[in-house]
Amino acid sequence: MSVKILTDSGCDLPKDIIYEYDIDVLPIIVIKDDEEYLDGVTIEPKELYDNMRAGQVYKTAQIPPKMFEEKFEEYAKKGENVIYIAFSSGLSSTYQTSVLVRDSLKEKYPDLNIDIVDSKSASVGFGLLVHKAAEMAKEGKSKEEILKMLDFYVQHIEHIFTVDNIEYLYRGGRVTRTQAFVGGLLNIKPILDIPRDGTLRPIEKVRGRKKVLAKMIELMKERAAKADLKNQIIGINHGDDIEGATKLKEMIQEEFGCSQFIINIVGCAIGAHSGPGTLSVFFLNKNFEG
Length: 290
Description:
The chain folds into 2 domains: 3-27 and 61-156, 3-Layer(aba) Sandwich (Rossmann fold), CATH 3.40.50.10440; 157-284, Hypothetical Protein Tm841, Chain: A,domain 3. The chain contains 11 helices and 13 strands. The protein is of the alpha/beta class. It has helices spanning 15-20, 45-53, 65-78, 94-105, 123-138, 143-156, 166-171, 177-185, 209-223, 242-256, 268-274; strands spanning 3-8, 24-26, 29-32, 35-38, 59-61, 81-86, 113-118, 157-162, 188-193, 201-207, 233-238, 260-265, 279-284. The longest helix is centred in the middle third of the chain and has 16 residues, at 123-138. Strand 3 (29-32) and strand 4 (35-38) form a beta hairpin. Helix 3 (65-78) crosses helix 4 (94-105) and helix 5 (123-138) runs antiparallel to helix 6. The chain is 42% helix and 24% strand. The radius of gyration is 19 Å and the shape is globular. The strands form 3 sheets. A 6-stranded mixed sheet has the order 10-9-8-13-11-12, with helices on both faces. The chain starts with a strand and ends in a 6-residue tail after the last strand.
């Protein structure tokens, strides 16, 4: 029986990949001045970043239970075999909501066949899981094989990212007002990651953009010491900064010999908190031998 891959817009995959693999994507809610938008549907990243540069503040909200209920019922009525890969439970309650909705629907649809996976990941790091799952589904792999791969990816995916303006992290509650003020004065660029629990963690503070990129490459080298990066798909995304993403790609190619990349703009759900100028890289610290 074929497997359908469902995810949410926090995966930040390019639209051509979404279409190629027929991935079903639920939009996360983005809020501006009490007006709600659907990430990637009724608001696109470029509009969000332009408005943020002009001083507009955005908030986000999880996918509502009703949206999950309607989507899961649609699958139940079709008798489809589904894997829903969710945005990290350490950063959103979307995963927990989806589990509650699925479990409640099983009373009405006992044969509901939906497995839910907590990606413990965000953005294209999350997207790499979704992409691999959709690729395996298209190849006719079983649900058990796909779930085994996802478990491996959750344990071994690495996120390294930086923000251009620490003010946006302050607005999102990630740093204090004083830290944001001092960081702005000193041109300090924080480097963050997402550890195995799926939360957000600052790991370095670097002064200046050039040194940030060099440090990101250094961290990749440390974390991928037991991996063959050259034979991986490397994820890169950016907060409306394609020049920065291109520079990072070139540095990775030169250092590790990588040739396969997924590069995309950071979507509205994550960009609302990270802001313009964000740069991220995602990879496995151990190659998957599936």
